[in-house]
Amino acid sequence: MADDVVREPVLIFDGDCALCTDWVAWAKRHPGAARSAGGWEAVAYQFADLNSLDDRVGGGGAVTASRVQHGPLWLTPSGDLFGGVQAAARLLMRSGSGWSYAGGLLALPPVGLLVRSLALPVMRRWHPTRTGGAP
C-alpha cells in the first residue's frame, strides 16, 4: 500500500502471526463485511508503506512495525488511529449486522480493558517474545 490517500479505513496487522492472519481472513469472509456501510482494506505491515501511513496520522512514529506486532492498527481516512482492542472494535462496527453491536460494546473502555486483560495470555502464547511472555 503505497498510496498516500486513504479512501477507506485500513487495518494494519502482523502478517507473521497466524492468529492475526486468521482473524483478518475471517473478517474478509464475513458476509456483513461486504454489505457494510463502506469498505475497508487490510494490509500486513510487512507489505505496507508504514512511513506514508504514519504521515497520514500526523507522523511522530505512531505507525511502526513494533506497534503492529503488539496488536492491529485501524487507520481512518480522516487520520484517526486506533490500536489493539479498539482496532478490533472498529472493524466489528464496520462489519454490519450483530457484529456492529459487539464492536460498539468492545469500544467501551471497561469492556475493552476486560477483553485486553483476558486476551493478553493468548497473545503471549502466539508472540511470546513480543509481549514479554516466556519463549
TrEMBL record:
InterPro entries: DCC1-like (IPR007263). Keywords: Membrane, Transmembrane, Transmembrane helix. It comes from the Bacteria. The chain crosses the membrane at residues 99-120. This is DUF393 domain-containing protein.
